[in-house]
Design a protein that fits this description.
Number of strands: 0
CATH class of the largest domain: Mainly Alpha
Strand content: under 5%
Number of helices: 11
CATH architecture of the largest domain: Orthogonal Bundle
Largest sheet: none
Order of helices and strands: HHHHHHHHHHH
Radius of gyration: 20 Å
Structural class: mainly alpha
Distance between the termini: 62 Å
CATH superfamily of the largest domain: Tetracycline Repressor, domain 2
């Protein structure tokens, strides 16, 4: 057997999965969860039925990966896995930079059309598919809170902030961000009116004065 065969097979599997995921993302965002069938995804991805179900046992599992992929595309992929443990949080200046980046990414995410489409899917179809909210929450709000909690846990260990309860600090930090997202973003008609960079920096500086 050609030694390269297992490598080629693995690469083909990765490509097929990406192909399926891309097709599913396009269909879910355009048509919603209920109106998107596994058969439609199979046809759009141009794969066989066995190939589709080898990668995804059902539509819910596929939607979960679409949600995660969408959030990664919007920026949260920067703060995942072991990357969190290698972030430079040894000084207040470094923490400030990370928090500004975190808010900026979050604001960009919330105003992105793909995020809005996902949120509409979850809200509109939650009565019929309650697990959608759980999938969305785990990949979005819960994930964001965990990232912020990790930041503040590291900051406390380094003696940068004085509050030991990292979860509480994270919620205090995210609360004002949520007010922008709700009142000036998701509940705003037309284009979201999100804060500019100066406003974001002012928020971070005021927050750091309270916890450092």
């Amino acid at each position: 057997m050609d030694p390269s065969t297992p490598v080629k097979s693995s690469q083909l599997r990765i490509e097929k999965r990406a192909q399926i995921l891309a097709a599913a993302q396009e269909l879910f965002l355009a048509n919603g969860y209920k109106r998107t069938s596994m058969e439609a995804i199979r046809a759009a991805a141009d794969v066989s039925k066995p190939t589709l179900y080898t990668h995804y046992a059902d539509k819910e599992a596929l939607f979960g990966d679409v949600v995660q992929a969408t959030f990664n595309q919007l920026g949260f992929g920067r703060f995942t896995g072991t990357q969190l443990d290698t972030l430079p949080i040894q000084t207040q200046v470094e923490l400030r930079i990370i928090l500004i980046t975190f808010i900026t990414i979050t604001m960009q995410q919330m105003s992105n059309s793909n995020y809005v489409a996902l949120l509409r899917i979850v809200i509109g179809e939650m009565p019929y598919f309650p697990n959608l909210m759980s999938i969305f929450r785990q990949n979005g709000p819960t994930r964001g809170l965990a990232i912020a909690t990790h930041f503040f846990g590291l900051a406390y260990q380094q003696g940068i902030i004085t509050v030991a309860d990292a979860d509480l600090v994270a919620r205090l930090f995210i609360g004002p961000i949520a007010s922008y997202i709700l009142t000036d973003g998701l509940l705003q008609t037309g284009e979201p009116k999100l804060p500019d960079s100066a406003r974001i920096e002012a928020h971070v500086d005021l927050f750091l004065k309270a916890v450092c």
